[in-house]
Design a protein that fits this description.
three-stranded antiparallel sheet; 33% strand; single chain; mainly beta; 2 helices; 143 residues; four-stranded antiparallel sheet
Length: 143
Amino acid sequence: MITTLNRPTFADVRIRDPRRLPLATAERRAPERQTAPADVYREGEDLVARFDLPGIDPAEDVTVEVEGRQLVVRGERKDHRDENAEGRRYSEVRYGEFRRVVPLRKAVDGAAVTASYDAGVLTVTVAGVFAGTTPQRIEVTTA
């Protein structure tokens, strides 16, 4: 028994650029949400989170919330420039929505959270989130 394999001619083969995604995949892809760079650390019994957010208006563009055991900082960087030079535009700064979630050890009341913005840095302090978690040394007795 002889089996013949039919291969398409070279004209029928599609050459695809590997750097490009198929159109169907590109259309389905949702825009990525950015995360804000953060430095999260413990200061005594408080949690302090510092976010680098230069060039934003914190009163209008940033929201700080406590959702259960999570501190959620979200906002949007807006591009206010309307400059086009000969139809070209170069930008190295990312614009769009951002969101950052910091897990907390326990649920806290919104009154325990303070936020301040200075020189492009948003500092959020959650008071008392580490209260009662200081390690205590237990003496070991011998028989």
